[in-house]
Amino acid sequence: MIKNYTLATNITRFFVYLILVILLLLTIIPVWLLIVNATRSTIEIQQGISMMPSVYTITNYKVLLSKGLDLPRGFLNSFSIAILTTIVTVYFSMLTAYGIVAYNFKGKKFLYSFILILVMIPMQLSIIGFYQYMVKIGLDDSYAALILPSIASATSVFFCKQYLESIMIQDLIDAGRIDGCSELGIFHQIMMPIAAPGAFTLGIFAFVGAWNNFFNAFILITSRDKYTLPMLVQTLRGDVYRHEYGAIYLGLAASVVPIIIIYFLFSRYIVNGISMGAVKE
Amino acid sequence: MVRSKINHNNTGYWFIAPFVIGFLVFGLYPVYNTIALSFTDTTLMKADSNFIAFKNFERLFADKTFLTAIKNTWTLWIMNFIPQIGIALLLSVWFTSNRLKIKGGGIWRMLFYLPNLLMPAAIAALFFSLFSFYGPVNQFLVRGGYIPEAVDFIRSPSVMRGLVVFIQWWMWFGQTTILIMAGMTSISLSLYEAAVMDGANTWKMFRYITAPLIKPVLVYVLVTSLVGGMQMFDIPMLLTDGRGSPANSILTNNILMYMKFRSSQGHIGAASSVGVVVFIMTSFVSLLIFYLLREKSDEKMAKGN
């Protein structure tokens, strides 16, 4: 009886590992092919599939530049937008969440339920109106239109509120007041340092989200020199790059490799951050 | 312990003021503006515009392309959501099983989640390259002798639809697994111990303990995935020519909205009406899900015990 049970468990375990390995290959192979092909010449790519990197990264890069794809520029544009969006999102979401957690003002419950409803509003319902409005006030084709809306990011406030509630220490705030700190000073000098891990987790998500954002930039940005990486990636499908496979893969790899590096450095924060907000502890 | 005598509570308003102002300016007004535009014939090419009441909506519902877009978006979402939640449930049960003791749960999860963080625009372009006529998939199939000659996948509606479904699934099953696992690990072990004493098997424990207790997480996953799925854009847009080709097979709501927006006249009134209809549809279905899957009072009592 016991022996049968162990045997059955072992058979199940074998199949479980088999499926896990298949899923792993499905997950990794497309990404690996992308990175490897970025290092291979177009001829090599046409000759066949290989999982081993080659040495043509620089050549591919030169092809990209010669076709007028300003990769460094796109990289810098995307990076500036992502870093500024991250700062704005983290600072203002923490500020708002702290206001909700630390003070008992009138209308607080209403405001919080309102924020929960805002999380549900899709960008489809605002983007066209947003675009026309930005044209009117002359902010279309500007990064401000991409960055400033993060002042009011409902999902991030929700995340910060959950986080601040779990780490809030009222005595520290009172001590700060006795020491003569201003209310904003307490937030900056006492709360923010304690909340740093949560702010960091939120920051990673904000950065990745802004880095990958295609739709908003695609609607709002029109000048070629302001194109972000996903917009440049979209141009890679054009006829100019026909049959320049190595260069195409390099352009794609440049937009995903930074995120892969961030992920492997901070996966602990990211994986823990995903379930925050969805599951009440 | 002497507490400060001053009442600080109203200071809270200063802290939330930037959010409220930011929301009014960048959130509420654009929503209002979109809804207002949907009742007008505004284009980007002429200065004046007229109030035309429900004309945009009438035209939309008379338009076969719009109905195709709605149908496609639903199909693409449901086809990826079912395997996504299925695999996620299986993986979560396996990873949390005391009997199987799967090694390296954290590492598997971490790797399965990776595609979710990658730029969708780049992923779509990647799969376009992989499946192009001279691409690696054709090379592999032809050289391996699995097919006699290369197939033009990009022009096949069913292959492209399948590919969008696959990419969406590929990007999201890891995230769903992490969420469901978080729900499962928050269930008290004593419940399972009691069930084992009562002679329950694995299936019964899943059916009567795990499933009811992870319902809130499932509802969360379902609704967020629905809201996201109805906005599907980057993948189907960049997988083919940006117009939902071949044969409108992967034309989604948002691609249609974008096409109206970028049409030669820039029909932003008509584009807004697409956004409004999709929003109403999404909210209605979300509320229906919340209503159908709400916690019934007897379940709440069972939880309390």
Describe the secondary structure blueprint for this structure.
The complex is a heterodimer of chains A (281) and B (305).
Chain A: H1 2-38, H2 42-47, H3 57-66, H4 71-102, H5 108-118, H6 127-136, H7 144-147, H8 154-167, H9 170-178, H10 183-194, H11 196-212, H12 215-220, H13 229-235, H14 245-275
Helix pairs in contact in A: 1-14, 3-14, 4-8, 4-11, 9-10, 11-14, 13-14
Chain B: H1 12-37, H2 55-62, H3 64-96, H4 105-117, H5 120-130, H6 136-143, H7 157-185, H8 189-197, H9 202-213, H10 215-229, H11 234-239, H12 253-261, H13 268-292, H14 297-304
Helix pairs in contact in B: 3-7, 3-10, 4-7, 7-10, 10-13, 12-13
Mind explaining what this structure looks like?
The complex is a heterodimer of chains A (281) and B (305). Chain A contains 14 helices and no strands. Chain A is mostly helical and 281 residues long. Chain A folds into two domains: 2-62; 69-235, MetI-like (MetI-like fold), CATH 1.10.3720. The two termini of chain A are 40 Å apart. The model of chain A has no long low-confidence stretch (mean pLDDT 89). Chain B has 305 residues and is mainly alpha-helical. Chain B has one domain (60-304): MetI-like (MetI-like fold, Orthogonal Bundle), CATH 1.10.3720.10. Chain B has 14 helices and no strands. Chain B has helices at residues 12-37, 55-62, 64-96, 105-117, 120-130, 136-143, 157-185, 189-197, 202-213, 215-229, 234-239, 253-261, 268-292, 297-304. The longest helix of chain B is centred in the first third of the chain and has 33 residues, at 64-96. The radius of gyration of chain B is 25 Å and the shape is globular. At the A-B interface, helix 1, helix 4, helix 5, helix 6 and helix 9 of A face helix 1, helix 3, helix 4, helix 5 and helix 6 of B.
